[in-house]
Amino acid sequence: MKIRVDDLKDKAVELSSEEPLTLYSTLMELQEAGECSFQAPLRIHLTVAREYDHIRLSGRVETSLRLDCSRCLAEFPLYIDSAFTIFYMKDDGLNQDEDVELAEEDLISATYEGNEIDFTKEITEQVILAIPFKPLCSEDCKGLCIKCGAELNLAKCECSQDNMNLKFNALKNLKEK
Prior knowledge:
The chain is mainly beta. It is built from 3 helices and 8 strands, in the order E-E-H-E-E-E-E-H-E-E-H. It has helices at about 25-30, 105, 120-130, and strands spanning about 1-5, 15-20, 35-40, 40-50, 55-70, 75-90, 110, 115-120.
């Protein structure tokens, strides 16, 4: 999704669209790698306005996808609804080689060149940030039995519960002198 900077005059411009995943190569790569499976196109709602020396983008991106639970390996749906605000500044072409401490507004800003701003990168980032690093089907997911592999959410297995915590197994034979 793009906008021409010259089209931004005194009032905000509203943009809405439903875009296929094929327009977002990074999201396609995630799906092809098996990280997730997108079940719907991206629904994008943007408000773009010129403010003083910058352009303000307020937006929302929505989609739904399927993920594999990192504990029990079951597939589950996830609905993404991410709201964001980004400030665009004209790229002045100055190279900054020195270390600079970033303020909060610097973390939600981007630069643009020319007379057109492409929002594809920022929309992609919002979707990726909304996907959990360690997806869980539910917060109380019990996962799989480490001995027999039974899914503990469905049934209790008959394995012995002794030595089930592997975190300190390396220390169990350590004796104090």
